[in-house]
Every structure is written in structure tokens, then in C-alpha cells.
Amino acid sequence: MLNGNKVLGIIPSRGKSKGLPDKNIKELAGKPLIAWTIEEVNKCNIIDKTIISTDSEKIADIAKKYGGDVPFLRPKKFATEAAKGIDVIFHAISLYEKEFDIIAYFQPTSPLRKEKNIKEAFKLFVSKNAKAVISVCKSDHSPLWANTLPEDGNMKDFISFEIKNKNRQELKSYYRINGAIYISYISYFKKNRGFYGSRTYAYIMPKINSVDIDDIIDFKFAEFLIKEGFND
Question: pTM for the whole thing?
Fold first, then answer.
């Protein structure tokens, strides 16, 4: 509970994964990917109840072995490639909004997110009197050095004249959404149809905790960091 508000944690886990088959239950450094998120979220005593939203009985069984609560199997219409995270959240809200005031959304593809990060995000939520908080991390590369390319690959206007001869250190710092932590009052989420709005604040996470697994390279990198102790 947070200042008298009941908090519902949501961990989404779709059965099919196009980029990396069975990604959410693929063994990462000794245990399924989803287990890393379940265990860290369960340590956080701010969250009153955490549910696993999945359409897969196989994922449900594995999640339960690692302390996950799977009260339902997600309807198939929310488990297609076209289904969005917002659909999954609205489905969970429709079942639990009478019992809870705040939702916290944790994607299992961020296995290096720690209990400490979650608590820090909630601390920011309170200190800013925020309606929502989204985790971010500093971008490795400035978007000012990126652009689209024409079919012939000509780079005439690829970067602006103002930054053409500047060093990386001279450019502004940019941040990217890392997908690890989302917190919001349910009423605010429903009003804005998402976490973004005028009362949303960024929680800046360390790079080491911000690995977001999309493909096998990300997976192997996360496994390397865990085995080498970088996430302790």
C-alpha cells in the first residue's frame, strides 16, 4: 500500500514471441526470463497484489513455480501480435479497479530491474506528487546523429550543420524509455488512455538495470551481465 492507496502489479507475458521464440520462459542464467521479474516485484512490499497476465498455460505453470499469481488466462483477443500493452492493462483494470487505486506495470523483458529500482520509482511518484511515473535511461547514442536515408543512400542532409563537427560530449543528453517500470493512478491511466500526461514524471534508471530483451543478442548480453555479477 502507498499512502493509503492499494497497488496492483501487472506482469504481462504473451505465449507467442516472434523475435525470440518462447522468450518469456527461455532460461536466462539458470531460471526462466519471467522469473527474474516475478521475484524482484514480489520483494517490494509497496505492491499489494501482483498478477501475471498471460494466455499460455505453460507460462502460467512456470510463473506459479516462481511465486507468480495467475488468476486467469488472458482472452485470445488480447494475445495476438496486434494486441498492445495498453489493451492488456485495460483488461486487468476491468477486473480489479474496484479493489485498487494504482497500477504498476512490469515487462518481463527487463530482467535486470531490481527491487531497489521499483522502490525508487515509487519514492519519486510520491515526492513529485505525480499521477504517473515511467522509467527511462540515458541513450547510448544521441538521436541528433541519426536520420532516415533516401533509397540511394545520399547523406547530404543526414545531420544538421549545427552539430556536424561537434564531439559527443558537446551534445545534450537524451533519454529513452527502457520498458522496465510504469506506475499510474488508475483514474489517470483511464483518462489519458495510457501513462503519458501532464503529471507524468521520468524515473532515471542506471544503464546496467535497463537491458530490454528483444532478440537473442539482448538475451546473451543480459546473461553475460548476470553471470559476471554486474547486476548485483
Answer: 0.92
